[in-house]
């Protein structure tokens, strides 16, 4: 890389094809193999192999998936077509000056003086001492950081929840982004595009997710379009490598001893490209197991797309 200083930038342009003033189709290269990527880089004049591409992708944060959050099933034959659908929707929203956000919940984190993955510079022979075993501290418990990443402005908000990761918590987290950042950035917009994984608290089959979005749409008079990533592709959700990866890198080797520490570490996360992250603590209780009936679903104002309506739908505000 030292001998080819523009190599990393060229690779990132292939897998992250947004450029200033020219928002190309996102996810254009997400289905390309390391062999295809190395071939393209070689055509651009670089000397590189598929093995080196794989290592550089890890360096850029594309393969450092520390936890598989859920089994996502077999790949859909329409996965590439769904990427194109999301790409086209993104372009349309950006052209109209409407927000495009990528959302997800980061893995739960134990609070306390526990070992955290990674290393940090310390004086020689003076490492930070932590507990030998990761038994949960009943007073501190765990936290769930739920992130909202603004694709256009390279900024985001992390809602640090102290209770359950439910659909209501997910939507409340997005609401907080809107209240703290989004509404100021997009004062004229009454439409929003949300890109989300297909499972979990913001899953495509989660009825409470849709009902909670409807309540938010009604409250703020917002038209909400949701596009879910197809099964087996959550690692391409932009929030994973544009925001979460940098947060993890910022707190590597540091014990997450309190709410204040985790909030400070998230809020101080920056990148050379100017990433800015707002953060707040959410101590609200979120009940598990809330059921949404068929009649409640029928009352929602949802328009399902002709192409994979289970992945793509619009929730409109109700008068």
TrEMBL record:
This is Uncharacterized protein. InterPro entries: Transposase_36. Pfam families: DDE_Tnp_ISAZ013.
């Amino acid at each position: 890389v030292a001998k080819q200083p523009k190599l990393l930038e060229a690779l990132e342009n292939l897998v992250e094809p947004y450029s200033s003033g020219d928002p190309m189709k996102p996810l254009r290269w997400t289905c390309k193999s390391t062999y295809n990527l190395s071939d393209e880089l070689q055509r651009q004049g670089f000397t590189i192999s598929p093995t080196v591409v794989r290592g550089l992708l890890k360096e850029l944060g594309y393969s450092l998936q520390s936890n598989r959050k859920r089994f996502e099933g077999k790949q859909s034959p329409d996965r590439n077509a769904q990427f194109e659908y999301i790409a086209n929707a993104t372009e349309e929203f950006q052209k109209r000056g409407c927000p495009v956000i990528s959302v997800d919940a980061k893995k739960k984190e134990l609070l306390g003086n526990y070992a955290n993955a990674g290393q940090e510079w310390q004086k020689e022979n003076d490492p930070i001492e932590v507990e030998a075993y990761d038994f949960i501290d009943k007073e501190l418990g765990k936290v769930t950081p739920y992130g909202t990443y603004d694709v256009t402005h390279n900024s985001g908000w992390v809602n640090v929840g102290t209770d359950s990761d439910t659909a209501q918590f997910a939507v409340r987290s997005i609401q907080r982004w809107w209240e703290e950042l989004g509404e100021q950035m997009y004062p004229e917009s009454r439409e929003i595009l949300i890109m989300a994984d297909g499972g979990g608290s913001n899953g495509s089959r989660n009825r409470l997710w849709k009902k909670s979005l409807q309540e938010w749409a009604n409250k703020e008079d917002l038209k909400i379009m949701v596009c879910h990533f197809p099964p087996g592709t959550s690692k391409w959700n932009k929030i994973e490598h544009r925001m979460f990866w940098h947060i993890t890198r910022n707190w590597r080797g540091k014990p997450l001893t309190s709410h204040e520490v985790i909030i400070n570490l998230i809020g101080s996360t920056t990148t050379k490209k100017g990433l800015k992250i707002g953060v707040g603590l959410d101590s609200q209780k979120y009940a598990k197991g809330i059921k949404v009936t068929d009649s409640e679903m029928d009352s929602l104002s949802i328009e399902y797309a002709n192409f994979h309506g289970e992945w793509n739908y619009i929730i409109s505000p109700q008068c």
